[in-house]
What we know:
The strands form 3 sheets. A 10-stranded antiparallel sheet has the order 3-4-5-7-6-13-14-10-9-8. Strands 1-2-15 form a 3-stranded mixed sheet. Strands 11-12 form a two-stranded antiparallel ribbon. The mean pLDDT is 93. It contains 17 helices and 15 strands. It starts with a helix and ends with a helix. The radius of gyration is 25 Å and the shape is globular. With 503 residues, it is an alpha+beta fold. 39% of the residues lie in helices and 17% in strands.
Amino acid sequence: MNIYEAIARLTEYGVQTGLIREMDRRYTINRYLEMMGEDAFVLTEEEEQKIKEEPAALPEILDTLVQAAYEKGMLPDDGITQRDLFDTKLMGVLVSKPSEIAAEFKCRYAESPEAATDWFYDFSCNTNYIRRDRIVKDRRWKVDSAYGEIDITINLSKPEKDPKAIAAARTVKQTAYPKCQLCMENEGYAGRVNHPARQNHRIIPITVAGRDWGFQYSPYVYYNEHCIVFNGEHVPMKIDRAAFEKLFSFVEQFPHYFLGSNADLPIVGGSILTHDHFQGGHYEFAMERAELEKEFTVPGYEDVKAGIVHWPLSVIRISAPDYHRLIDLAEHILKAWRGYTDEDAYVFAETDGEPHNTITPIARKRGDLFELDLTLRNNITTEECPLGLYHPHAEYHHIKKENIGLIEVMGLAVLPARLNKEMDLLAECLVEQKPLDTYPELAIHRTWAEDVKKNHPELNSENVRTILEEEIGKVFVKVLEDAGVYKCTEEGRKAFDRFTDSL
């Protein structure tokens, strides 16, 4: 495929996906000629017609143009970062102005909220903001557990850090624009070696609790229609009454989506605490399917159903037809938890003036009822657990060492990309009975791997992958249990009751 064919095919892709109209074809071709440093379009009408009849895959088209740009000296190197910056610039040509996209979303919303989000999700995929060719590389499976069916994914869609970009970043002038990857200023931004390009990115302006917010999808799509709802201003996250009001303000407008927030303290919080934002989507997690193991009543809130969820983390679920009552009760529970200490359960509201208790909230609408899950979190550390007592313990770090954020809380493991190669190597060693030290990267899995081998004498080349996936799932459930303040034991549930009785 030569440059001219690739330009014609990319333009045809824009027409076929509805990103541009037929009337825009020649204009778009000329835009691409300019970008590629060409001053003529060397393709016959017959060749153009053949392209319309025989479409090519978008990644192949973009790779052709990016490679041509590199060979022309338009890219400083051919690393993944520079290639992504350039192919995003190419896709940006096909994307309408923000005002036009917002108007289309508003028109679809008049039909139904679901029609609007369906269209915008497809749009975000068609613009290659969501790179479908990378998303399909993620390894995903489900594992049965005592708490229901748990989702596991090894994230392979997020590019590994590019050594060339890391080296180049040292010489790049530092800038605070955009302030972070969630700021409104990202829309249309050209990017740089240490910040992704966003010419193909559009944000839907929405009103949340009377303020200007943005709605977009995550480019990595950890689950169906994984969206991000974020404050129009760069202000830090905070779990308080206003946070609950914002959650339900969104859910009321988009009742087919759930919306949740990471906690607002280190260790138990998300990766971006500096910008107020939530994550949601059109997906039913295992935690949502989990049932109440015990109901209780909070005085003054007899009209609100409340109970403890059968889940490895410590979750209180409240539901009512009027979400304002949930906001009132959630504020009451949050205030109680912020100041709650139970030394027998090793729960301390604060030590040396440092607060430890917070909540990970998830809001949704189920039928005629609004529902709010309040996950009790505590970020205290000890000498034995310097990364956090209610955090994955060291024996499970070979699988999951990172913080347990909102997505994991709900029952979806987002595991590091390194595991993909490590599990393939481990499978090879187990099946062929090679010593684990054949591969240095398997050293961290030694104890676990020996247990897997001992517990599965039936292991062979046909079932080894399934066995490893099941065992990884078991480890993730243990990780969730570690993150639970109140364990699913008789002693743990008695301690949980002491808190709910205090409300």
